[in-house]
Amino acid sequence: MLLNVSYNDKTRTQKIDAAVGGPFTLKERWELGGIGSPKLFITHTSLEIQNLLILDNNLNCCNIEMRPKGIIVRFRSLLETYGLIIPYYKLKLHKGDLATYSIHHDHYFIKVKSDTKAIQKFFKKLLDYKADNAPTSIGDL
Predict the structure, then answer these.
(1) Which of 15, 59, 101, 114 could be joined to 119 by an S-S link, Cβ 3.0–4.6 Å?
(2) Is residue 85 scored above 80 in pLDDT?
């Protein structure tokens, strides 16, 4: 789900927490080695997100926040902050060309450059956390 997260709204916060869980505690953040990604430069997006990004002339970039049950991809357009809320069970992550990762959720997608080791390390941490905390599948029984 794509939401405007610029302003604090109790119902919106409850909706986000229901979808991806509340924020990690400080201890959990320390154990994970941080929950936020470095600055990610957007190369290509789905139509709905692209329509938001073309409203201003700034460089298109985003960041990812890990949550216990999903991620939030945040980006800015004009003076507003938008969040793409993605539960882990709907998250599809693809390693594309030489230095590109693609984040998919239903009909939304964002492709970002992954030209540094820090970005690649974050995506590995994200995939490992998703795999460790996924519910047991029928094939594992």
Answers:
(1) 114
(2) yes
